[in-house]
Amino acid sequence: MRDRAVIRHRLGQYSALWLGGFLLALIIAAGASLVAGLDLVDVADWILPTAFVLLGAAMAYGVGATALSRAGLATKSLVTALGLLLVLPLLWAPVLAVLVVAAIGGAVIEYSTAYAGFRIAVSQIIYPLVSLFTESPLATAVWAMFQVVASVIGFAASLVQVWRAVRGFLYGGDGDGDVEAA
Questions:
Q1: Of the N and C termini of the chain, which has fewer Cβ atoms inside 10 Å?
Q2: Distance between CA atoms of 87 and 113, rounded to whole angstroms?
Q3: Band of the pLDDT at 123, cuts 50, 70, 90?
Q4: In terms of pTM, does the model score above 0.70?
Q5: Residue 179 has pLDDT above 50, yes or no
Q6: How many other β-carbons are positioned within 10 Å of the β-carbon of residue 84?
Q7: Which 3-state string (H, E, C) describes the chain?
Q8: If you average pLDDT over residues 113-134, what whole number do you get?
């Protein structure tokens, strides 16, 4: 029971990180580019690397804290596997926020070094996995699939987190009956 609570706690933290990373990057990018009039490419080159480091460190902390905890080996392994599987969708959150601001402001961020570097890194990670199953060049399709999957995962995780918070506010407690575990 305690191990299940640890996994739920870490997934809740992931949801909060995704939503927080998205909203904070959205607010900063919109404020800097749409309100202050700064070039969105320059803003993206500042926001994205900072967000990647902070989100990556938070994810590593969560996985590391679980690995060092008294949780069972299966729980530690599952949290580590989920951390590796969900790190790219987590890092997609601030990129998506900057893309939303670019769409609203009619800007193009393809010239952003941080954005281009992220796309290249994701392509280098995902494309070899896809090429194991097919021989045709799918770089554009793989990138599009990554964007959709990462956005859906982040949105769903955030929706669950917001629902749990609203339910806890309306009905009291966390609604799970589980004891909070670190």
A1: N
A2: 20
A3: confident
A4: yes
A5: no
A6: 11
A7: CHHHHHHHHHHHHHHHHHHHHHHHHHHHHHHHHHHCCCCHHHHHHHHHHHHHHHHHHHHHHHHHHHHCCCCCHHHHHHHHHHHHHHHHHHHHHHHHHHHHHHHHHCCCCCCCHHHHHHHHHHHHHHHHHHHCCCCCCCHHHHHHHHHHHHHHHHHHHHHHHHHHHHHHHHHCCCCCCCCCCC
A8: 79
Among 52, 22, 59, residue whose Cα is nearest residue 112? 52
Look at residue 114 and tell me whether its pLDDT is greater than 90: yes
Q: What local confidence, expressed as pLDDT, does residue 3 receive? A: 82
Instruction: Pull the structure tokens for residue 81.
Output: 């596997």
Residue type, 104: I
Distance CA 82, CA 88 (A): 11
* Per-residue pLDDT at 182: 41
